[in-house]
Every structure is written in C-alpha cells, then in structure tokens.
C-alpha cells in the first residue's frame, strides 16, 4: 500500500493525525498540537483574491474587440500574476450591468467583449474563465452587479432606454427602469429594486450562470440602490405606492427590498449548489456611531442610508457566506480610520459562521490627490499586519488586477515579501466529511526538478504538497502552518522546480475537498 515507505514509518505517521478531525470554526485550519504556535506570517488558510473588473474594460479584457485567442491569452496572464503573487482566488466581473459574459437567455452580450452591446463574440468567455482558473487551482468567484443596467453616455445608453440592445430586459420592460441621476452627465439606468418582477428577473439571470457553470462563488459589490446624487432622490414613488404597503418610511421599504434580494439569492444558490458561496463586498461603513450606537467610530457615507444595504443585518441573519467590506482608507484617517473599521467588522462577525475578508484599495497607492499615507509603500502592508490582531479576519481582496500588476512604489512586492511568501489554501467553510489521505506513488529527480505522482482521490478537489529538508518523519508542528507548503495543485502530480540537485527532501501530500477541508498527510516519500 505504501510503496517504498516502510509499514512502521507509515504507522508512526498515521499516529500523528486522526483520519477525521473534529469540526473547526469557519475558515480555521485543523487544530495543531497544543505545543505548536503557527506563524501568523505563513497561514495555511487565508483568502487572497484580486478583483478582475470588466466594466469599461478596467482589467479584462483590456479593450473590446480582441480575438478569442487574444482575450484568452490576456486572461491567462492575470492568472499567472495571481499565482506569482501567491493569490488563491480571482473575482471576475461577468455581469457589469444587465449584460453577460456567457450566452444568457436573459440578457445581451456585454459590450466590453466586442465593443457592441448584444454582439455575439463567437465563444463562451465564462466557460473559459472558470476552466482556466481551476486548472491553476484558483477559486473562481463570479461577480454580478444586480441592479445597474447601463453606463453614462456616450459610452453607454445613459438614461435613454431606447439605446439599450433590443433584448435588454429594460428595453423589454421599460416600466422596470429608473433613470438616475436625471439631467446629469453621470445619468444611467437602473432596475427598480421595489418591483418584485424586476427582482425575480435579476435573480433568474444570475442563477442561469450558477446552474450552468462550475463557479465557486457568487459575488456582489457595493451597488444596490445607487449612491445618492446631490439634490435628487431615486425615482421610485410609483413602485413605493404600489408595493410599499406596511411601510411608512420609504428608506425601510428600500432596505427590505434589498434584504429580500440577498435572502432569496442565498436560498436559491444553496438549493442549486450547496458548495457555492455567496458573498458581498459593501461600502466599508455600515453606520456611523453618531447615527447608531451600534455603528463604527467614523464619520463617512453610510451604506445603510446611501445604498439601503443593511449589511450588518445580513451577517447576523446568516444570509451570506462571506463579507468583504471595502475598507478603502488609510490608517489614521480621521473620517474613516482603517484601524477602527477592521476591529468593528471583526466584532460584527464574531460569534457567527460568517467569513470576513477586507477589501484593499491598491488603486490608491501613489494616486494623485490621495493622503500622504498612500505615498508610503508600506501602507498596505501595515493593513495586513494589523489584520493579524483579529482572528476573525480571514484574508483580503485587492482592487484591482491592474493595480497589482503595476506594483507602484513596490507596494505589491512588499505585500508578497511580508505576507504571501508561501502558498495558502482559501479558508475552509461549511460541513466537513472525513477526508482520506493520498498515497504518493512515485518521486524522482528530473531535469525540471523533483517529479511527484500520487493516486487521485474522490471527492478530493485539490492537493497540497509539503516539502521538508532532510529525510525524516514530519511532526505535527511541521504542518501547522504553510512554512513547508510548496504548492497547491489540481490533478495527480506536480514537479518541484525549486528542488536543489543533490539535496535530500521529504515530501508529503494532503487532499482537500471543495470547501478546503484538509486531510491528514500522506505517508512521506524521500528523495
């Protein structure tokens, strides 16, 4: 059974870790022996994601009209960047505004593919996006904007429904459309969230992608009701009159509309695919303490009132699986201090099974008009260092891919050197079934490095490869963090390109399920 590993060694190794560990808190790694103190600089489970925005071609595709081969090569480059920076997930925008990056029966093709809204690009981008991310063992979260239905003119339809593609839902149902703001260059069209049929359409359009593609997550950003424009209210008086019975306050009714969207999406996603996570990345301030004693010690825009998004409630009710508040401010900023908001959010999720990641404003580094803190290459690194003080913070998401690649002031390199020196698995979540360990079938030196092969397991989704110096049985402390984790891969083999010729090593492999629960280690193999 164990190949070249002696039966005695195998028995000794298996005595270290039970086949089925006790359940652990959401996102936590399997408990290490009491004497082990995992290094917080090398966590084994941590969300490390970057947003890849498609709206107005921010990240991908970088311009409309690319051939399929060009667009695919460009996307592959983003995945290569993610792997090089030791990220483990990408969050890709596939429905920027009532359009689609897949052949949707509900909504037109996105204009950011071909340059023409509704024009078939001749291939299925979403299928490629998901497949290639998984081949690189990166989680793929599909990012949808629920209620935005267009962009300002001249690049978009502005507030003119007739300029939408013929099969746009608001062209077919103009009574669902609300232009906002009006008589303003920033005007665009939105679904009216207060119309039940419009909400159902949005949910159906998103669920089409959930059911057809092997995504790992459904992701919403901070746009629900639009951010308010000075002197204008969102034009939903008619829908409030028709559907607002029972609410004396329009703000409470609007929040209930968004609550319904979140609650219904949570139910529908998990009924279709229990392993798909549902997450939201809201504006970083729920409410200020001056407005609500439960709020944060801040004095900025409040998502509760601006977007009618009661994000704290969603956490407490368990309607989402993870939350990524956009804490897009520097440490020490008086109006919204990063060092005050992170502990506030950590307290909100404490005692729940919610996973908390922090949205990072990489785009502010060395950007004109930003506070002096953003001209210090260490500002983002200090954010992640502060996060370590709060065990509820299980990772970060960075906006956006072009900023990670730009590496202004060397800030991204510093993040990698100080916080992502080793690979990491995404945080584990949900129920865990007992996981079998894999068995390494061969280990040999080649010109490319040390080649390892193991027997694939079902239902293992991926594997972790650990390497220790010398030839010895690993102890529990060796695997307590990612200090010895050299790769996370899919498939039944991997070649270690950094193995030094003539140097002796011990390798072990673990298997992980779709929710990132890790098995005990394989019996070791030496080379």
Please characterize this protein's 3D structure.
With about 525 residues, the protein is α/β, with parallel strands linked by helices. The chain is built from 14 helices and 17 strands. An eight-stranded parallel barrel has the order 1-2-3-6-7-8-9-10, surrounded by five helices. A four-stranded antiparallel beta sheet has the order 14-13-16-17, with no helix packed on it. Helix 2 runs parallel beside helix 4 (about 125-135), helix 6 (about 195-210) packs parallel to helix 8 (about 250-270) and helix 12 (about 380-385) packs parallel to helix 14 (about 410-420).
Give the assembly state of these chains.
single chain
Q: Can you give the helix content as a percent range? A: 25-40%
Count of separate DSSP helical elements? 14
Strand order across the largest sheet? 1-2-3-6-7-8-9-10
The whole-number mean of residue pLDDT values reads 93
**Mass-distribution shape:** globular
**Per DSSP, what share of the residues sits in E-state strands of 2 or more residues?**
15-25%
Unreliable runs, pLDDT <50, ≥5 residues? 1-32
For the biggest sheet, the summary is: 8 strands, parallel, barrel
Specify Rg, calculated over alpha carbons. Answer: 24 Å
Task: Report the count of strand segments.
Answer: 17
Spatial separation of the terminal alpha carbons: 19 Å
Structural class: alpha/beta
Element layout with pairings:
Elements: H1 7-14, E1 47-52, H2 68-84, E2 89-95, H3 111-114, H4 125-135, E3 139-144, H5 169-172, E4 177-180, E5 188-191, H6 196-212, E6 217-220, H7 237-243, H8 250-272, E7 277-280, H9 303-306, H10 311-317, E8 322-323, H11 338-349, E9 355-360, H12 379-387, E10 393-398, H13 401-406, H14 411-419, E11 440-446, E12 449-454, E13 462-469, E14 485-489, E15 493-496, E16 505-512, E17 525-526
Parallel strand pairs: 1-2, 1-10, 2-3, 3-6, 6-7, 7-8, 8-9, 9-10
Antiparallel strand pairs: 4-5, 11-12, 12-15, 13-14, 13-16, 16-17
């Amino acid at each position: 059974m164990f190949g070249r590993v002696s039966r005695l060694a195998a028995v000794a190794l298996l005595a270290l870790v039970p086949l089925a560990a006790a359940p652990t808190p959401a996102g936590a790694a399997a408990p290490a022996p009491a004497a082990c103190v995992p290094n917080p600089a090398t966590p084994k489970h941590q969300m490390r994601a970057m947003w890849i925005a498609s709206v107005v071609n921010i990240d991908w595709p970088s311009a409309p009209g690319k051939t399929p081969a060009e667009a695919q090569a460009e996307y592959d480059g983003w995945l290569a960047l993610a792997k090089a920076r030791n990220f483990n997930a990408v969050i890709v925008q596939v429905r920027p505004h009532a359009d689609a990056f897949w052949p949707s029966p509900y909504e037109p093709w996105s204009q950011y593919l071909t340059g023409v809204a509704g024009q078939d690009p001749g291939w299925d981008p979403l299928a490629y996006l998901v497949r290639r991310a998984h081949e690189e063992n990166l989680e793929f979260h599909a990012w949808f904007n629920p209620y935005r239905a267009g962009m300002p003119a001249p690049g978009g339809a502005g507030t003119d429904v007739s300029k939408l593609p013929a099969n746009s839902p608001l062209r077919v149902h103009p009574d669902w459309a609300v232009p906002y703001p009006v008589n303003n260059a920033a005007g665009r069209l939105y679904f009216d969230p207060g119309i039940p049929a419009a909400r159902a359409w949005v949910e159906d359009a998103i669920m089409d992608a959930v059911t057809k593609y092997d995504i790992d997550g459904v992701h919403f950003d901070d746009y629900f009701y639009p951010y308010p424009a000075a002197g204008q209210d969102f034009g939903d008086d008619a829908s409030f009159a028709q559907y607002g019975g029972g609410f004396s306050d329009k703000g409470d009714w609007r929040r209930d509309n968004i609550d319904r969207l979140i609650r219904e999406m949570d139910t529908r996603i998990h009924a279709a695919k229990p392993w798909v996570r549902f997450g939201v990345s809201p504006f970083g301030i729920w409410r200020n303490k001056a407005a609500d004693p439960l709020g944060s010690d801040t004095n900025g825009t409040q998502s509760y009132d601006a977007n009618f998004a009661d994000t704290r409630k969603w956490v407490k009710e368990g309607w989402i699986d993870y939350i990524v508040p956009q804490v897009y401010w520097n440490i020490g900023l008086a109006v919204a201090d990063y060092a005050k908001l992170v502990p506030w959010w950590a307290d909100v999720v404490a005692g729940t099974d919610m996973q908390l990641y922090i949205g990072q404003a990489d785009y502010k580094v060395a950007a004109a008009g930003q506070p002096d803190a953003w001209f210090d290459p260490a500002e983002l690194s200090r954010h992640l260092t502060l996060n370590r003080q709060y065990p509820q913070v299980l990772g970060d998401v960075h906006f956006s891919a072009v900023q990670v690649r730009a590496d202004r002031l060397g800030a991204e390199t510093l993040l990698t050197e100080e916080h992502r020196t080793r690979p990491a698995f995404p945080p584990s979540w949900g129920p865990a079934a007992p996981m079998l360990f894999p068995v390494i079938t061969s280990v040999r030196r080649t010109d490319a490095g040390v080649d390892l092969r193991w027997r694939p397991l079902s239902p293992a989704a991926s594997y972790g490869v650990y390497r220790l110096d010398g030839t010895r049985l690993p102890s529990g402390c060796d695997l307590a963090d990612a200090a010895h984790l050299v790769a996370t891969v899919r498939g039944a083999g991997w070649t270690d390109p950094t193995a030094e010729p003539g140097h002796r090593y011990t390798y072990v492999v673990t298997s992980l399920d779709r929710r990132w629960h890790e098995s005990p280690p394989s019996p070791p193999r030496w080379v």
